[in-house]
Automatic annotation (TrEMBL):
Protein name according to UniProt: Poly [ADP-ribose] polymerase 14
Taxonomic lineage: Eukaryota, Metazoa, Chordata, Craniata, Vertebrata
Domain of life of the source: Eukaryota
Xref: InterPro entries: Nucleotide-bd_a/b_plait_sf, RRM_PARP14_2
Pfam families: RRM_PARP14_2, RRM_PARP14_3
Domain called PARP14 second RRM: residue spans: 1-80
Organism: Struthio camelus australis
Amino acid sequence: SALVVLENVRETVGDYMLIMLVENISGLAEEDDDFSVEMIPEINAAVVTFTGSTATGEFVKKFNQNHRAKQQSITARCLEVTKSIRAENIPPNTPDDYITIYFENKKNGGAQVVDVQQLPDEGAAIITFSDHKGNA
């Protein structure tokens, strides 16, 4: 996977600081489109997407050994490939068939859905695809 999750990212850590930290550790440049950073403040995390053939395992190892990352208590791990996604804001009483057809529509991914597990108390559903590429 070309994706790395940075965890324990406090609200006080800005995206620019993370970008510089990733640049310092990887030797790559965000402005050269070598990678991008997406902040996920709801779970105190960020996702780094490398665009080239970066050895993410090696980056994770270097990141977790870096004194600045340790100082900030930020840890890195490779993002595992999954066949499932969580969809939110699903109206109550939405039929499973509707959700299946929605995600199988080419405009919405076009991947074969093998399972829909609704979480009505949360207004959400877990959708599982036959192939991990369907939930990109």
